[in-house]
Every structure is written in structure tokens, then in C-alpha cells.
Amino acid sequence: MSDFPLDGTETRENFAWFLQMPTRWIDNDSYGHLNNAKYYTFFENVIMTYLEHHCQLDTHSGPIRCFTAENGCRYHQALKYPQPVDVGLRVAKIGNSSVRYEMGLFAEDTDSVAATGFVLDVYVDAQTERPVRVPDNFRSALQRCMKSD
Amino acid sequence: MSDFPLDGTETRENFAWFLQMPTRWIDNDSYGHLNNAKYYTFFENVIMTYLEHHCQLDTHSGPIRCFTAENGCRYHQALKYPQPVDVGLRVAKIGNSSVRYEMGLFAEDTDSVAATGFVLDVYVDAQTERPVRVPDNFRSALQRCMKSD
Amino acid sequence: MSDFPLDGTETRENFAWFLQMPTRWIDNDSYGHLNNAKYYTFFENVIMTYLEHHCQLDTHSGPIRCFTAENGCRYHQALKYPQPVDVGLRVAKIGNSSVRYEMGLFAEDTDSVAATGFVLDVYVDAQTERPVRVPDNFRSALQRCMKSD
Amino acid sequence: MSDFPLDGTETRENFAWFLQMPTRWIDNDSYGHLNNAKYYTFFENVIMTYLEHHCQLDTHSGPIRCFTAENGCRYHQALKYPQPVDVGLRVAKIGNSSVRYEMGLFAEDTDSVAATGFVLDVYVDAQTERPVRVPDNFRSALQRCMKSD
């Protein structure tokens, strides 16, 4: 596992790959900020997009699915529509059938981190939904997404 | 009101302004396509983004809010994550306090329209929530978004 | 098709079957009301729940799927969390492979209709996604959900 | 903080208050299970509903708002529409301006826990959005929601 703090001191340099996601009006809740549950959608999307681009993950008909076993988020500063969010990703640990991802969310043109979080995914066979070894072509792409302190 | 067909024969040329929106994994429902309710989120976002960029709409603290009085959608072809959606917009009618918008959704790099729809919005005062005349600076920007057959 | 007005004069008596749906905090948008796109989720859920209870629709592994071809909504009065919503349903027309549903949304303990809408669904084969005739066991349950003026 | 395990060994008896939440078709994602982000919506709703019923929390115009500082979830068994979810709540710790809640999600008529999670909320003034002491009327209701091993 990485030794990054996963707190409000994280910087853009601590993440290996970025996806900018536009926000939507309904991402905000009645308090005028992005609702906390939407952060997990951003986490999910940056992981899937990385795997689609670098490992040819096919979520619709491929042999592999990624099921979430655990996730969590710390909220440091509010984000809100219409500001786009830069979602930073790093791979923290590659296990036999599981991968731990860590994310940092940054408001566009802002250096201080708005939220930090992690997702622990288990790779499963699309048919049986039983855990499988993370495939080799995924491993090499995942390793390129690791950062060291 | 425009005399466009608002059906499966609409083309990209029939729309005046476009916003590309990335899709998210949870936009798809269990049938593996974008869920019908999400199309209305795309409609809402293209309208708001146009107004933010061209009329300085401030959804958070501005004096004007747009409330939806009626909307509708026809689904011609399935859309699905991870394909981004090009959302075409045209203004069909500018009334005293209401505006009718018409939209066409296109899969990226595709000419045939996947969905067509309309939104009838009423402009209201942010404090009283009572209808107000569409402001002049909005009118000129809205007119630039009209198309004639 | 039914000759009901589908406007702000609809009453609870005009609908044949009701489902009460609790609202969720994130159903509200920043304006403090249920977001328009969420109404379509309520429409979808009342239809599916009726079919699950009365026609044994199995959305996960059954032979039939319902794809939406067109839908629309008129918003008469705002609804908002935490008030539950009573969703009224009637079947307006049963075609060969399509069914038109009409809905009325009512705030709990309120007689005036908050929103009215319709959904035109096409029944398709779950494997081929091609239209099929509405099955007989669905037809009898759907007829019991029709109302006459 | 409570010493409950917050893992797959949690039972219904470990929680002090329950809210049953119906699921919606679009809570499921393309893999046919409730999407992970929706669990946080359930967490949020059980907390808000408890506070509305027992502490007269008024999310729309009351003097207090609850902002989430941190949350997390462990997924033990899949949940899916159309099965309702029983959401169990206990208060784990009441601080000066923060409260830690712990939740267990159970499929209806099922004893084994499907997911466990926590939310750390900070109580803020609705106007200034600055932390405030958890009000006394909230404290007594929150204490009644605590469980001891």
C-alpha cells in the first residue's frame, strides 16, 4: 500500500493520471455543493476510464468485471457545479485479485485538494462473478499508474 | 414554435449549439443503455451551460431561475456509456416569461439522431419564484440560438 | 388512448393504481425541489412495480423487456423531500407491442395533482431486443389498470 | 467510538433504529446490482430521517446543517432492485460539533449484513457554514440511538 497521507495535504503531483469530469446541475444537492455520493461516481469513472484506455477493459461484454469491496472518502473543501473536477488517480497496491486505487479531487485551476479517497476493487470473472487473478495486461498498465513518495 | 419535426429525421444541422457530455458508468441502467431519465439531465445541462456561457446565468446567486413547466423526449436509438454524447440545442420559441428549447442527442461521430426532446422553461424571480419577463440580455443570446427550416 | 386531460385538473380518482414512493435528499436539486429528471424515475418505478406485482415481470432474467419510446411530463406544483410522493397509474392504450401509461404525482395528503405525465413503452424480446406482442398475461393485468372517463 | 466490528459479522441487533427504503430500477447499474454510490444515499437518508423524526431537523430552513467530513463502506453481499433495503443506524460517537454514525444494510427478510459503513458529520450553522456545537435536543435523541456491545 502506498504511504501517501490521503488527506488534505495531498497535491496534484501525488497522482499519476488525471481525468477531467464536467459536473452536472443535479450533482449539487440542496446545500448547493456536490453531494457526497457523487464523489464515488467520480472515483468509479476515473478507474474505469483508465482501464478502458490502458487495459482495453470492456465493461459491457469483456471477461472481467471489477466489483468494489470497500471504499471511502474524506471531504476537505466543497466542490460545486458548474465547476469541472480534475480527478487524480494512483494505484496504491496490486494484489492477487484485488487492486487498491487512491484518488484526489481538485477544482479546476486549484492546487489544494478538495477530497481524497480510495477504492478497493476485486477482479471477478464476468460469468461466475468469482475472483480471478488480475490479468497480466492489466498489471503492467496498473504498475505504470503507481507513484512513490 | 419551430416547425422542425423533432423526430428521428432530425440532423446535426438542425441545431444551433452543441455541448459534448461524457457519460458515466451509472448513466447506464441494467439493460446496458443510458436510462431514459438521464436524457433529461443532458437536456437540462445543455440549456444551463448555454445560458451560463452566453447570458451570464448564475444558478447559485443570480436574480433569475428557470423552472421547467413541461418536457418530453423521443428515443430513436440507444445510447450507452462509455460513449460521449453530443447534445444539440436550438431555441424554438421565446415568449414573455417562457422559452421553448429543442434538443437532439447524437452519439459521438454519428450523424443519425439518437433522441429528440423539448423543454419548456418559465423564467422566475429567484426570491419570489414568480414568473418574470425574460431579460433583454437573455433574449439576444436566445435569438442567436434559433434556427429556421 | 384515454381522453383524460393529463393536466393540472387530474384527480386521484382518475388513476387506477397507486404506489407511494419515499423521496431522498438527493432527489432535490439546488432549488430545493425535486429535480425534473427524477419524475421520470417515479414514472418508471410505478410501471415496473405494477408489472412485477400483477404480471410477474422479471426485469433481471425474464423473457420480456420494456423499452421507452417516448415520454413526457407537465409540472403543476413543486414536490420536495422529505415528503413522500403518491404515484398514480392508469393504462391509456394497449397496442400490439406497445403500451401507453399515464401517471399523476400527488404530494402525500394532497388532492391537487403536482405533475402529470405519460410513458410509451415498447415490449421487446430480452435476447434480440426486437418488439414482441404484449403477452396475454400482461394484457389482462394491463386492462384492469385502465380507467374510463 | 463504538467497538463494533463494522464488518460482515454485524447483525441486526447491533443497530438501534431502522428505516426501510424501497429500491429503484436505476439504483442498479449494468451489472444488475445496486451501484456502490447509492449506498451512500441510503446512509444519508437514514441519518436525515432519524434527525427529522427525533430532533426536528429541518433541512430546508432550519438553523443547522450536517456536512459530511468522511465516510466509508464495506460491501459484503450484493443488493439489488426490486428488493427493499433495511437500513440500520447506530450513533457511535458524539463529539463537540461532530457525530459519527454507523450503518448496516440488510436485504429484506435477511439476517446477514450486506454492507456496513460509517459517516462522520460536522454540524454547521446554516448561514455561516461554520461548525457549531451539536444542540442539546439533538444530543439526547442521538444518545438514544447509541448501542453498547
Describe this protein with a few key phrases.
globular, 5-stranded antiparallel β-sheet, Thiol Ester Dehydrase, Chain A, 149 residues, homotetramer, 5 strands
Overview of the molecule:
Four copies of one chain form a homotetramer. By secondary structure, chain A is α+β, with helices and mostly antiparallel strands. Chain A has a single domain, classed as Roll (Thiol Ester Dehydrase, Chain A), CATH 3.10.129.10. The first copy, chain A, has two helices and five strands; from the N terminus they run E-H-E-E-E-E-H. A five-stranded antiparallel sheet of chain A has the order 1-3-4-5-2. In chain A, strand 4 and strand 5 form a beta hairpin. The longest helix of chain A has 20 residues. The model of chain A has no long low-confidence stretch (mean pLDDT 96). Chains B and D meet through loops of B and loops of D. Strand 2 of chain B pairs antiparallel with strand 2 of chain C, so a sheet runs across the interface.
SSE order and pairing:
4 copies of one chain form a homotetramer.
Chain A: E1 17-21, H1 36-55, E2 64-75, E3 85-94, E4 98-107, E5 115-125, H2 136-143
Antiparallel strand pairs in A: 1-3, 2-5, 3-4, 4-5
